[in-house]
């Protein structure tokens, strides 16, 4: 199983061919993709066209869904953010901290292209899907 970050989904839905979208396509075919509620929210917020929104919602609803942020995760997310910050690294978006921390805790590889996840791989043992 792999979790896929929003940035990869955006390229996928826009028809952009990248190494990540190819990996996503293959993982979808193999039934290996799961999605978190935060990622689901980010994806759906990005659609301007109603029919595209509804199609994406139907498609993504077929995946296994995970709640990513709850009371138990808050301290872990804050701790990971603070660890990176103490190393001089500032993660730009709280949602990236949540996604990375969830994947670390659940030992789920993350398929991403956003550079904010690299410190999580290098310093906090996030598994990159590729």
How would you describe what is shown here?
The protein has a single domain, classed as 5'-nuclease (Rossmann fold, 3-Layer(aba) Sandwich). The chain is 58% helix and 9% strand. The chain has seven helices and four strands, in the order βααβααβααβα. Strands 3-2-1-4 form a four-stranded parallel β-sheet. It is globular, with a radius of gyration of 15 Å.
Got a strand count? 4
- Portion in strands: 5-15%
Task: Let me know the CATH homologous superfamily.
Answer: 5'-nuclease
- Poorly predicted runs: none
Strand order of the largest sheet: 3-2-1-4
Question: What value does the average pLDDT take?
Answer: 97
Q: Please bin the fraction of helical residues.
A: 55-70%
Taking the sheet with the most strands, its summary is: 4 strands, parallel
CATH class: Alpha Beta
* H-E order: EHHEHHEHHEH
Radius of gyration: 15 Å
The number of domains is 1
Indicate the overall shape.
Answer: globular
CATH topology assignment: Rossmann fold
Q: In terms of structural class, how would the helical and strand content be classed?
A: alpha/beta
Give the CA-CA distance, first to last residue: 13 Å
Count the helices. How many? 7
Any guess at the CATH architecture? 3-Layer(aba) Sandwich
């Amino acid at each position: 199983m792999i979790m896929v970050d929003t940035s990869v989904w955006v390229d996928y839905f826009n028809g952009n061919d990248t190494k990540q979208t190819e990996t996503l396509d293959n993982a979808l075919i193999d039934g290996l993709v799961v999605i978190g509620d935060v990622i689901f929210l980010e994806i759906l917020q990005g659609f301007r066209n109603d029919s595209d929104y509804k199609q994406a919602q139907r498609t993504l609803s077929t995946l296994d869904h995970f709640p990513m942020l709850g009371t138990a995760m808050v301290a872990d997310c804050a701790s990971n953010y603070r660890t990176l910050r103490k190393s001089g690294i500032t993660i730009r978006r709280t949602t990236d901290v949540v996604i990375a921390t969830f994947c670390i805790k659940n030992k789920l590889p993350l398929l991403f292209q956003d550079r904010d996840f690299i410190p999580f791989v290098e310093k906090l043992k996030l598994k990159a899907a590729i």
